Amino acid sequence: MKSYMMAVAALALAVGGAQAQSNYPERPITMIVPFAAGGPTDVVARIVGEHMSRTLGQQIVVENVAGAGGTTGITRAAQANADGYTIMMGHMGTHGAAPALYPNLKYDPAKDFAPIGLAAGTPILIVAKNGIPAKTLKEFNDYAKANADKLNEAHAGVGSVSHTTCTLFNSQLGIKPNRVAYRGTGPALNDLVAGQVDYACDQIVNLVPQIKAGTIKAFAVATPQRNPALPDVPTTIEAGMPDYQVSAWNAIFAPKGTPEAIVTKLTGALSKALDDEGTRKRLLDLGADIPDANGRTPKALQQLVESEVGRWTPVLKAAGITAN
Amino acid sequence: MDMLANLGLGFSTILNIVPVELPGIGAVPLPMNIILCFIGCLVGTLIGVLPGVGPIATITMLLPITFQLGNPTGALVMLAGIYYGAQYGGSTTAILVNIPGEATSVVTTLDGHEMAKQGRAGVALGISAIGSFFAGCVATVVIAALAAPLTGVALLFGPAEYFALMVMGLIFAVVLARGSVAKAVTMILVGLLLSTIGTDLETGQERLTFGFAPLSDGVDFAVLAMGVFGFAEVLRNLEVSENRDVVNKPIGRLLPSLDDLKASVAPVLRGTALGASLGILPGNGAVLGPFASYTLEKKIAKDPRRFGRGAIEGVAGPESANNAGAQTSFIPLLTLGIPPNAVMALMVGAMTIQGIIPGPQVMTRNPDLFWGMIASMWIGNLMLLIINLPLIGLWVRLLKVPYRLMFPAILVFSCIGIYSVNNSPADVVFTAVFALFGYSLIKLGFEPAPMLLGFVLGKLMEENLRRALIISRGDMVTFLEKPISATLLAIAAVMLCLALLPSVRKSRDEVFTE
């Protein structure tokens, strides 16, 4: 299917470059999601992509190309024809942490893409098993320091959102727990609920139902404002850790060299999707943050990518973490 | 009697008739959920039969369609139908062409394909459909009655317990072998080695990839299974030009005889119990079900020599275990909101897209969805039986297709299937490489089944071993301190001793060597 579409893409490019732009899109658009179907990034891509399809008048087909912390799919998407028919849903890991984690990375997040716009951010939450006596982030800090030799943190694998964001959390608190790797958020959450491990940092969408059911407890959400999905959970600013501001953002990119007219069209479709009530509700139900009009421009996304790469590289390097 | 009221709610959700706008006809009242359930079961059966195209690829492809449905129950009922439908269909290729579509149908190839070679393909397909139906019904009742209390079981299994379970599973693998024990152990070790390829979970370092990027996520199960079973089987069949044993035999009876059924009753019951219990465990415990069932049947059989040569018990037990496990693996998802395997993780995605965040509250907050899904499982199993029994004649007739037409079709469909798993061309090439490897194995008299089991369990075993040791700060005693893991390890040790005791081994060799 893909090679067929690539053949068609090559043909279309040869026949009429400039004319194709004004009629864009004339056939379905492939959105590469660099993670397995069903995960948080995939869900955001499908929710946003569904509304964008309606605006653009062509289907946006999600293609999941998982592997190597999302870099496999992004590498492939970066090398696709820059004709607007291949776009991708990147995120904090692929366009922020990846340069530090993967020394052999084949793309530069800040230089090899035409940013379309930020789609949604999912805030990071600090959670712990119920068996821990601490009730607040401060108490947890004390507990962690007092029990430094037996503290266990669960994460979803080296390079995952839960792993990178908790690396920052640990370094800011100055704790060095034993870090237990799981294959994805599900198994990690299972052992957290069961009390095999002590705490974790992860995207809010994965955790809300468990917190509401009281199977685990939340200490703080790493955003300036409290999250409507969990109004009782304080922010890290309220909890006394104001520097810990982290969100696993998802954003749409096109390969470098994609014509500006096409980028503008896609940015417009994305922004329209984010203004749609139904789409908003779906994203808010996930606990996601929706960027305001200023945050949706390609320029804002470019700045975000640059600041994120600048932020994660020293943190991960200091922790001595690389993924290959 | 809450359960009856709940099931009533479930069935009324499923049987609910809604007006549907049909183009050109207008609004027609239709039982949409039943129709979606049927579509799911049918699609599931078909993709199960197509080698390589697994439920994961199909559910991924169908996710966008569920978006348009706007009816969470209907969407999930359909996706669930695909999943357990694929378990039915997967055994069809295992029996007919010796290709296990999934890890759970590997054992079905052992005796199922042998039965097909003896002209008993119809009986094998029939008993697997009947066994699966029975197991599906029992598992549905188990979920309805015990889902809530069983929730705790998933939480009892931490890394230490899981490691012990995997050790026990590997000991089973030795019993699986038909030939010499030494060769079986060798194959298990090769499987374990293959499972270590890829990025290490704890450190992020690449192992055994030789800097080759497509290997950085390891070898996919479908790639390995399709290569060493499917493609290698094709190569071997091509040696004997057009004289495949299957073709020469008469088709034989299509449905199991009374004697077949009698021989299968106990294995089906035992398989259902084993599969249903293992299915509840997190981290894909359902994979062990069919292996455990096969091992059990072979151990308690009066004449274990029949196993591997077309014993109907070796099909009936594992097939029931397979389906029971597929069904009970919904328990952790529905009650805890935690997916135990990759397919369930996709179901989480499907639920999230529909605006239902899976978690412990689904049962109370969306009771129609929860009980509707359970009711649909029973209806789905009935549909599968109705779809599959008449199809047996058709499948068996497929074996009469000349092999020169059949094998290109098998290869093409397999390649499409392999590609669809990760959208990766490299996977297709790997499959070809494993085909050559598998062919050499057959020529040298090594069994690929223990290798696949080693491969499936290896990753889980290593990861859980390291996890348990990280949590215990390197203290090995942790495996003996926990009652469940200690018990499982003790069982494994006893089985190993039985296999190694000289007097027992003598009779073992008689049993296992041809």
Task: Explain how this protein is built.
The complex is a heterodimer of chains A (324) and B (514). Chain A is of the alpha/beta class and 324 residues long. Chain A folds into two domains: 190 residues, D-Maltodextrin-Binding Protein, domain 2; 99 residues, Periplasmic binding protein-like II (D-Maltodextrin-Binding Protein, domain 2, 3-Layer(aba) Sandwich). Helix content of chain A is 44%, strand content 19%. Chain A contains twelve helices and nine strands. In chain A, strands 1, 2, 3, 4, 7, 8 and 9 form a seven-stranded mixed beta sheet that branches. In chain A, strands 5-6 form a two-stranded parallel ribbon. In chain A, strand 5, helix 7 and strand 6 form a beta-alpha-beta unit. The longest helix of chain A has 21 residues. Chain A starts with a helix and ends in a 6-residue tail after the last helix. In chain A, 57% of the residues are buried. About 2% of the residues of chain A have low confidence. In chain B, 74% of the residues lie in helices and 3% in strands. In chain B, a hairpin with a 6-residue loop joins strand 3 and strand 4. Chain B has 514 residues and is mainly alpha-helical. The C terminus of chain B is likely disordered. Chain B has one domain. Chain B is built from 23 helices and four strands. In chain B, the strands form two sheets. Chain B has a two-stranded antiparallel ribbon. Chain B has a two-stranded antiparallel ribbon with strand order 3-4. Classes of the chains: A alpha/beta (324), B mainly alpha (514). At the A-B interface, helix 3, strand 2, strand 6, helix 8 and helix 9 of A face helix 3, helix 6, helix 15 and helix 20 of B.
